[in-house]
Amino acid sequence: MSEEKLRQDSHLADSLNADASSPNSIIPRLQQALATCSQLIEAGDISKSNELVVELVDFLNPFSVSVVEDASNLELETTAFEILTEIDRFISSPSRNQEVIDALSFELPKVVCKFACASKRCSEIAELIVGHLVSTCSPRDMLSILCAALSSPSETFKIPCYFAPLIGGLTEVIILIQRRQFEQVKTVIPVILGVLKSVSLEADVEDKDTEELFHKAIGLAESIQAVCKKLKDKKKLCALLGLFVLQLMALASIAMRRNISSLLSIVLYLSRFLPLCGISYEGLITGPDIDKFKSICGDDRDDDMACFSHVKHGGSLAVIWGYKSNEASMAADEDFEAVKNELQMNQTKRWQAIGMLKHVFSSIDLSWELKTHALDFLFCIMDGGATVEIQNDNMDYYTYMPTLYTALQAIEMVIIYAPNAVLRKKSFDALKKVLADVPSSLRFDILKALIQNNECSSMIAILLDCFKREMLEEHSRSISVTSGVSEAEVKDPPCASFWSAGALELVELVLKPPKGGPPSLPEYSDAVLSALNLYRFVLIRESTGKTNYTGVLSKDMLQKAYNEWLLPLRTLVTGVVAENQNDHDQLASDAICALNPIELVLYRCIELVEDNLKHA
């Protein structure tokens, strides 16, 4: 290249770095830079052209940042529109050399999508530019370029309007891929889902841009579906599409948690894919369809599979929407009544469904409205099946205990954090429903585990009350069965699990925590009061009935309760009350109020133990 030409290139580079704050000078310099790049590429000077492209990007970046940071500035929007129009005019020219387009395609998508954030018309031109690059360049190259642009935006551009044209471009690219479609799609999906997850978790305010982004993702799903139709062996790609749709279902529910009407329209679109992928409501809510698709697509240790972290949330939500909306069940080509009847009549499938619902209950990102729908669905499938305890000799109940245990823990989270009393009561009723569906021989183990692994004082108190209720109901049933026989003559306890030393173990767990020392007061007032009430109940019931199923009346146990539980607790309560007696602030008043009922029950327990020790 001539020395004169080098001087021109140097002058161009200097001009790009010159007064970058003047909008009026941007378009001429952009035109000059694009023309020079074209000349250098056509002349074969790839190295110099690459340097100039980088300088061009660096030159435009400050303007794109200003567009996002000052979205109301009409002058900046006009400048962004003019920049995009000039780029579109340049690459769309029929006389443009394909080598020039190929060279620019590595940087242009990222650049133009930054300016897409200026306005709706800017976004439309950005989509045109990306679409033109997709239609003229190598599909495999564009797939990598667009994925890279999606994966690496700066913090300023992690917004829906930046991502939308890029996802739209991938929608077109997928159709153009002719070989190894499954592998290519499996590369794209984690990138798309990563973007959507980031947007969903940060979507504090509902906006049309977020909704539009999910419609773009649905467009990608439609492209994958179109590719599936062309393939002879479509099993793996259909499974991948199914997982993608379920993950979208979950992420859309998170992103649009404050706009349920808009969410329903997304759900209807996504539900149409379910029958096409061979997914059924029953297979979703009991889990097999999801597990099957994951095994088809790859091992859980596969990095590409990590993006499907919310597919079980999505599967549960898809069925919940089928319960709430006839339109959703019709879109999924499902008879919800048949699914409901099957879950009501089949205890195994019902427990599997409860296990799936835990993903909705335990999610901190889903709305309370959706969790309320999930509770309604739970009541729906429990009606007709949970009220009667069914003993199935062929069923291995212990296999399902971990599932039910974690589901109950998830329901506990709703009870603890629900924003109103109505939802707390509904979730507590759900907890009791699920417990009632468990055989009584295993109910003790689950309740004990829930209490042992709980840090919330109020929740421990609720669970101890449930335990006490189970003891009372078993005792009442025993009395009805042995009517006319005194309790002392009944050799076996009402229920070997509840009426056993295990009841006192739970009392000790609260009154003498494993970590040592008496319980923390007033923080654990609820749990302590409930434990004392349980101990008093057992002590009175056993002494009046002249039984000792739990061992509560043995001399050693009475002395242990007296010396290790009750007296240390009395010392603690007395001390805390004394400390707060002279304080007149609200905190001290609340502490004393919380301890008053504990004192009453505590002293009654001490009296009962002292009386029974005299006759032990």
Automatic annotation (TrEMBL):
Pfam families: Kinetochor_Ybp2 (PF08568). Residues 1-20 are annotated as: Disordered. One of its GO terms (molecular function) is ubiquitin-protein transferase inhibitor activity. Keywords: Membrane, Transmembrane, Transmembrane helix. The keyword Transmembrane helix applies. GO terms for cellular component: cytoplasm. The chain crosses the membrane at residues 237-256. Residues 1-12 have a biased composition (Basic and acidic residues). The keyword Protein biosynthesis does not apply. This is Aberrant root formation protein 4 isoform X2. It comes from Nicotiana sylvestris. The lineage of its organism: Eukaryota, Viridiplantae, Streptophyta, Embryophyta, Tracheophyta. The gene is LOC104222474.
